[in-house]
Structure formats: C-alpha cells, structure tokens
Specification:
Elements (H helix, E strand, L loop, with lengths): L4 E7 L3 H11 L6 E5 L7 H4 L4 H4 L9 E2 L12 E2 L21 H11 L6 H10 L1 E3 L13 E3 L7 H12 L15 E4 L4 E2 L2 E2 L2 H6 L9 E5 L2 E9 L5 E9 L4 E12 L2 H11 L2 E2 L1 H6 L6 E2 L11 E8 L6 H4 L3 H14 L11 E5 L10 E6 L15 E8 L7 E3 L10 E3 L6 H18 L10 E4 L7 H11 L1 E2 L24 E3 L5 E7 L14 H30 L7
Parallel strand pairs: 1-2, 1-13, 2-10, 5-6, 13-25, 14-15
Antiparallel strand pairs: 3-4, 7-17, 8-9, 11-12, 12-13, 16-19, 16-22, 16-23, 17-18, 18-19, 20-21, 24-25
Helix pairs in contact: 1-14, 5-14, 12-13
Length: 564
C-alpha cells in the first residue's frame, strides 16, 4: 500500500467492481486501484455451489447486516446478507443467471430520458461478457468472461411441479433471458464445471493480476471520499480515506473514483462523505457536500413468501441428507462428477407468471426447491417436502438506508418497509392462492402434497397478507438507493451515465456510482447479472470520457499564443 496515486480508484471488488477494474486496467497507460473491505475469495465454501449455506451469516464472507424491525413483517427483523469478499455478493448468491424483462430497461429509459437504457441497447452489453453454454446467437454471447451453464441435476418432484404449473396455465420456457421471461423451467446458472463462477474468477483472475498497472487492496475499508473545490466553484472527488486495519491511508485519483460498494455500502459511503439528505447528515455531525435527498432512499427488494408442502413417494433433500451415510453419498457424487445436491443452486426450478389475469405482464417469480426448513440456516425438516417460494417482481413499497452514526465501522440502518402498500399486500395474497392452485393440479396428485406452511386455515385476503408478514423473507435483491434519473428530478442521485449530481443542477466531477444502487426500479428477476450489464456500459463511458478529455488537452496545448 505504498503507492497512493492512481488514475482510477474502484471501491468494492464485487460484481460491478471486478468488471470495472478489468475494463479500466485494460489500458496500460492507466493505473487502477481496486479496494475491497473483505478478504480474498480463497474460502473453499465460496466455490462449492451448496457452500452458500456456510457463507451467508459467516463474518468471513458476509457483512452480517440486519434490517430494522419491519411493520409490514409484523415487527420481525431479517438477516440481510451482502458479500464481503472478492466477488462480493456473486460469491455468496444463488448463482442464477437472469436479465429480467425488456420492459424493465425501457422503463429506465423513460425515467432517465436516455434511450441508452432501452432493451435493444443494453442487450449488447449483456452479450459482451457472456459465455453461454449453447454458444452465440441473437440473444446470447460466447467467449466472454461470465460463464452461463445448465444445472447438473434434476428432481422428479420439480419435474412434476413444472407439469402442474403448465396445467395451471403457465407455459414452459427453455430460456428466461430473451426479454420476456414468462414461463416455467430450470434456471441457468453462473457455474463452470460444477463450481461457482463469481466475478473475481471471471474478471480479476488471472488477467488483472498479471497487469503491472493494476493494484488490489483487500481488508481495506473506505472511510469517506475526498473532495476539492474547482475553479468554477464546483466539487471534484479527488480520492478517498481508507482504513487498512491498522492505519488510515489517503489515496488520490487523477481520473475518476468509481463507487461499486453495492446498494447498502454505496449510500453509506456517500453519506459518510457528506453526500445525502443535508438535515440527516448534519444530525450525524457531517458537513454536507451535496444535498441529495435520494441517497439512501428508494430502497427496493424482492420479498419471497415460502410455501412448504409435505409429499409422499419422491426423494427430496430432506430425506437424502437425513443421515451421515446420505451426506457421504452426496459428497462422493460431487467428488466423482461435480454433480448432485452439492452442485445445487439454492433454487433449481423457476417460473414467471401473473398474480391475476388482469396483470399486463408477469409480476411474480417462483423459486422452487426439493427441500424444506423453518428458516434459512435451520435444519431440514424430517419429512419429504418441497418449497415453492414466490415473490412480487415489481413491489411498490420503498425503504431507506441511513447512517446510524458518523463511524464508518457502524452498520447502517436498513429499513426496506416491505408490504407497506395495499398493492403489495394484495399481490402477496394472490400469489399464495396461485401456489395452492398449482399444488392442486393432477401432475402433483401422485405425491399427495399437503400444505404444511402456511396452512390451509388461512383463506381471506387479510389473513393471507398478515400471514405473508409472518413467513416472508428477503431474496437478497436490494437496489435503488442511489438511483439515476432525469435532470430536474430532486430524488435523482445520478445522471443517466451514473455520474453523481451536486444538488445544484450540476455534477460532482470525477465520481460515479456503478452498482445495483443506481437502478431506478428493480428488475423483474435476480439482480446480479443486470448489475454486470450496468457496469459494462459504465466502463465504456469512463474510458470514452478520458479519451475525450485527453484529446481536448492536446488541442488546447497546441493553440498558438496571440501576437499583440
């Protein structure tokens, strides 16, 4: 850590930060520093797919956040995992490759007033880094860094659920990533040969490690960003203060600082640095640099409602992993072929459908699993069962991320405000009814499904909505807390190129936010790969802006002096 001056400083080596560092360090004339608060991704459970069970809730790999007590969840607080290691949340997530729906990005274009975010304009960025197992075609790329594969197992009970969903009117889908994800099918996953494929493997190793202009700091937490006044009176982000565990370091960026700390970390760092709601900052003793009320606002997340059904006549993980011998067989299968339950993503079968026929597009996502438990981290049930978790893809509830104190080591207060709107409560009730309708179809009848959770005694909208508050949990997709938006929108933190606004109609020079916090609305599906797409576009803009600035400097330096 002896070098402290760089062209670019990327804060956060997660999904977006790893790609940004890769793309920016491809220019050998630019020195790039990547800063990660966590450790290297050399923990073996990161790479074994089922290892997410040992990574979430583990201080080795997780920030260990929790939400505030949620009124919509009847006073419950939820565990709120975020990756704290190289690869960030791509090292502990469900590995599901999902882009969302075309209308998500068309909506971003409408919100920002910038057509660069339309589906047809973001699709090339998805394909640019993709390495799809079927090869390149109109919708998919091949040869990129981000590996997409089929899952390496199937289950009879999941096949039966798929058939039942089709009997209930949900069509089969072989590809959820064409812009219209309606249907049911097995998820494609970010794995390679039965191992997790995180962003550190994809974008940092080995290529970045071999570049002399690239430097990586791990175990280094950003305390705050630094600013300097420009001749025109505006502010420029000039670097950051970093705590490496024993001392405070100051690093400087000649070009840009790119904040990629995620939907929780990025608004926290911005607020610690004086960028956020001015009154809230002053209350913490922080002098405002830019009064931006949207920093830490607009928090959106997918809340899943887990319905559990006991079954008969089919193996599930509850049974297969119920003994030491069963666990040994599962381990041997993985060692022999990198397949079987240890290669499982947390959810294998997925579906996208409508909570009611009058919905204009699919507004629900199912994650279906051949297992059941009371809560994440608890033991599997002693009886065979499957879980059908369903979430509202487009929640209207909005929450906040706010500082608890001016101490950078204190976790922020996270308040998602789940189920705080009547629409979200109605969709919750409708989704539970749809789950019951699928379970009642002939394809599942041989397995005699019995609703164990929530229980058939709950029937009315009011009962089901209250019940959702009792059993629902996050599916770990926070977005929107430093959202981009149109000029003149007082809640827009970023412009459409992810540059930070100054609260006075201009921009803070040299500062962007490139992660899921920049999304103005949540995508209709898992959020990891949309974050990569966002970073792909941002990296191109950073490099283009640098080239434009260099060209302008050269032209200015060749202007002849005026002869009197």
């Amino acid at each position: 850590m002896s070098d402290t001056s760089f062209d670019y400083i990327v804060i956060g080596a997660g999904t977006a930060g790893a790609l940004m560092a890769n793309r920016l360090s491809a220019d050998p004339g630019k020195r790039v520093l990547l800063i990660e608060a966590g450790r290297k991704d050399d923990y073996h459970w990161i790479h074994i797919p089922v290892g997410y069970l040992y990574c979430i809730g583990n201080p080795r790999t997780d920030w260990l956040y929790s939400t505030e007590a949620e009124p919509g969840l009847n006073g419950r607080s939820l565990r709120y995992p975020r990756g704290k290691t190289l690869g960030g949340s791509s090292s502990i997530n469900g590995m599901i490759y999902m882009r969302g729906q075309a209308r998500d990005y068309d909506g971003w274009a409408a919100i920002t007033g910038d057509d660069t975010w339309r589906w047809q304009n973001v699709l090339p960025a998805f394909k640019q880094h993709e390495d799809h197992y079927l090869g390149a075609n109109e919708m998919h790329g091949a040869g990129g860094e981000w590996r997409v594969e089929k899952q390496r197992l199937r289950w009879d009970i999941l096949d039966a659920f798929s058939q039942a969903a089709q009997q209930a009117g949900i069509p089969h889908s072989s590809d959820f990533n064409t812009g219209d994800n309606e249907g049911i099918g097995y998820f494609q996953v970010n794995q390679k040969g039965g191992l997790r494929w995180n962003s550190a493997k994809a974008f940092l190793r080995p290529i970045c490690y071999g570049r002399p202009n690239f430097e990586l700091w791990t175990g280094a937490q950003v305390m705050r960003l630094l600013f300097e006044r420009q001749p025109d009176g505006g502010q420029r982000c000039s670097g950051a203060e970093v705590w490496n565990g024993s001392e405070r370091l100051t690093v400087r960026a000649a070009g840009e600082v790119i904040l990629c700390a995620g939907a929780i970390g990025s608004p926290q760092i911005l607020q610690l640095s004086g960028i956020g709601p001015a009154d809230t900052l002053r209350a913490q003793g922080i002098a405002p640099v830019a009064d931006l009320p949207g920093v830490g606002a607009n928090l959106q997340d997918h809340l899943q409602i887990r319905a559990v059904f006991k079954i008969e006549g089919a193996p599930t993980l509850n049974v297969l992993a119920s003994s030491w011998w069963g666990k040994a067989r599962i381990g041997l299968q993985y060692l022999a072929s990198r397949s079987g339950p240890m290669s499982m993503a947390p959810s294998q079968l997925g579906a996208f459908t409508r909570s009611s026929p009058d919905r204009p597009w699919p507004n629900l996502q199912y994650h279906v699993q051949p297992l059941s438990l009371d809560a994440f981290g608890d033991p599997l049930h002693a009886f065979p069962a499957f879980t059908a978790s369903v979430c509202n893809l487009n929640p209207t509830s909005r929450g906040t991320v706010r500082l608890r104190s001016a101490n950078f080591q204190d976790a922020p207060a996270i308040a998602p405000r789940y189920l705080s709107t009547e629409e979200d409560r109605q969709v919750a009730a409708e989704s539970l009814r749809l789950t019951r309708r699928i379970a009642a179809q002939p394809a599942l009848a041989p397995y005699k499904p019995q609703e164990f959770k929530p229980g058939v005694q709950y029937q009315s909208d009011e009962e089901l909505a209250r019940l959702a508050g009792d059993i629902a949990t996050t599916i770990f997709h926070p977005v929107g807390t430093a959202a981009m938006g149109a000029d003149g929108d007082p809640m827009a933190v970023l412009d459409s190129r992810l540059r930070v606004r100054d609260g006075r109609g201009g921009l803070i020079a040299g500062l962007r936010v490139v992660d899921a916090s920049a999304m103005p609305t949540i995508t209709s599906g898992n959020t990891n790969s949309p974050t990569l797409m966002l970073a792909e576009k941002a990296a191109a803009w950073v490099r283009a802006d640098a080239r434009a600035a260099e060209t302008a400097t050269v032209k200015t330096s060749h202007i002849p002096e005026t002869i009197a």
